[in-house]
Amino acid sequence: MKLVKIVSLTALGASLAFIGGCQLFGAAESSSSSSASASSSTPSFQESSLPGGGVAFPQNERIHLSTDQKWIASEGHLSDLIRLQWTAERAKPAISWADENGVDKTAIVSHNKANNPEQHDHKHISIETTMSPTGENKDELFTRFEIPYDTDVAEIRTHSSNFNVMDGILRVAAEGKRDIEFAKTGKDNATTPLWTLRTDSGEKDGNNGANFNIIRYDDKGEPIDSAVTVSRNDGNVGIGTNAPESKLDVAGDSIRIRESKTPDSANSPGNQGDMAWDENYVYICVAKDTWKRTELKSW
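Given the sequence above, the corresponding structure tokens read:
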């Protein structure tokens, strides 16, 4: 087996060397001395010292691939210059990056099924990085970001990681409604929504439509109502209603101010519109630092 491997490595190295030699010859066709020098310095290939073996290209050498082919399915996608294929259902072709000690630190992986036959089919391409060197899964590669395939809607998922947008904009754009959903996860990556931040559809002239909504859901993931709505046209805020008609429109039968407050005098600090209460009075600030009150009586 080792002999076959050595022969294979030698054959691959010779083939690549031949290609490289031809390229060098073509580039320096007018100079036989340059060609001879290039041929004598053609680098040799060797077996990789990293786990799993393979062919090691000479250090600092570069692979240059180019094409003038189009990406056409009927012709076999002739422009895919690198093609990684799995030939067993649980195989995982990957490109990985290792540190100076040969330890894998990051990888791009695409595969069909999980290692564990009891898990659901993965069917995704993922970007993976190592876990904390002091944590439970020390130095293990773990999926941080994945995009499924064989689906008409490309979901983008992150696992055990924060998603930060540094000094930029996180934008959700669409012709219809635009959602940011908070959900709980279940079996086989199923999700059940709990809350959704939404701008609804139906934009019209005059800043109408695309109102902002905070939607709540029941335990089965069915929407209950828009707990809070903000009108884009006039800034009205609705609680329990999606059509607020005043600056604060509450679709309910009570509003509660939990803490009591008693202004020291009719000229206590306050802003117009402030309200307070205690066990004897309701207080309203009618102008800057100007309070009035009405007495509360039992019935």
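The chain has four domains: 1-59, 83-163, 174-254, 256-299. Try to locate this feature in the token string yourself.
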